[in-house]
Amino acid sequence: MAEPPTTQVHRPRAHELGLIGCHSCGQVSTRRGMFDSQACPRCGAPMHHRKPNSIIRAWALLIAALILYVPANLYPVMFTQMLGQRSESTIMNGVIEFWRSGAWDIALIIFIASVAVPCTKFVAMAVLLVTTQRRSTWAQAERSRLYRFVELIGYWSMLDVVVVALVAALVKFRQLSDIEPRIGILFFGMVVILTMLSAMSFDPRLIWDAETTNESSR
User: Cys staple from 89: which of 17, 32, 93, 134, with CB 3.0 to 4.6 Å?
Assistant: First the structure.
């Protein structure tokens, strides 16, 4: 005997109930009018149905970070002088030198923080922005989890800068040796900041707005 088809239960959305949430404190209030012009009654921050120009700002910040990632890898990130020998190292040179000297754990940390994490964020944010801009309903739950993953790894993106600072502090204690950061670490720091701002500018609720568009077009 064939089972009767299951009917999907319509869950009302916030805008259908006349509600709007604050991005700063999370307070949910009754929406007044059709325009985003009211302030949060709790913290006074402006409330928006969706973050204004979310996709455009996220794209701009992501592209700027991608452009700066090139000099971050080409320019040296630190200058070392030990026993009269001077050398400047890029990110990958530093990874190779630490690996050859036996400090594979530091080499692995620098590689993950400087290469794996930024490239993962570039690809993940591009996927989120392209699919959201096309109003795709493909894997919406997985894309929401992908966004939370991008936010999570964003907090660990400064590991490379921290490692350079710690190595510099340790070497400073030794005699006949010196270490200084170079301009490459500045470019890398800007890449980290721009990718974090790109993720913060993206509104993940836009992922689910495609359902509303498809339902209204039927």
Answer: 93
Q: What is the mean pLDDT of each run of 10 residues along the chain (218 residues)?
A: 54 68 76 70 77 89 94 82 67 80 78 84 92 86 89 71 64 58 83 89 83 52
Report in angstroms the alpha-carbon separations of 36 from 40, 49, 52, 185, 189: 11, 7, 9, 40, 34
Each domain of the chain, given as residue ranges in start order, spans 13-49, 51-217
From the DSSP assignment, how many helices (H) and strands (E) are in the chain? Answer: 8, 5
Q: b or e along 154-188 (b: 16 or more beta carbons within 10 Å of the residue's beta carbon)?
A: beebbbbbebbeebbeebeeeeeeebebbebbbbb
Pick the CATH number of 51-217 from 1.20.140, 1.10.3460, 1.10.3470, 3.90.1570: 1.20.140
* pTM (two decimals): 0.76
